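Recall from the previous lesson that a structure prediction takes nothing but the amino acid sequence as input. Here we apply that procedure to DinB family protein from Hymenobacter aerilatus. The sequence below is the only information supplied.
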Amino acid sequence: MPDTPEVWLRGPLPEVPPLLQPVAHALLQAREEIQELLADFPAVLLWQRPAGVASVGFHLQHLTGVLDRIFTYARAETLAPAQLAALAAEGHDDPNTPLTPAALVAAFARQVDRALHQLRATDEATLPEYRGVGRAGLPSTVTGLLTHAAEHTMRHVGQLSVTARVVRATQPQH
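The prediction returns the following tokens.
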């Protein structure tokens, strides 16, 4: 991938409305960067928190969950019990089914696919429409939510990237 231009420089994505291209580009860029960064990431490092920062596992769970939740609000829907349970579980390994880096990366990739499907189906005329966020129904718009999904995702990809590099660098070499 080093010779491949960033996603936004590869041209428009088919069937994604023009005003939503930047959101789709950011999500695809995030997916590519995460897949490359964590291709062979050791499971033993998944929950390490160097200097108390969020773990790689948390970032992967959070990235997937935030996209799911924000895109739900963009559809003018409330969160389902399963989404609230996933939110409560962010940052924790499942002792019954231990999570692996590959499984968490795959879950994020699937969530990006669902987000892209929704972007393709979004009518640009709905972008300025009001959308309530959270139980309090804080004010936003479809544009605000989708833009926040893209910027929030990229912010966490940056944090994830640094954390993954730090924990790898501090791992004893065999």
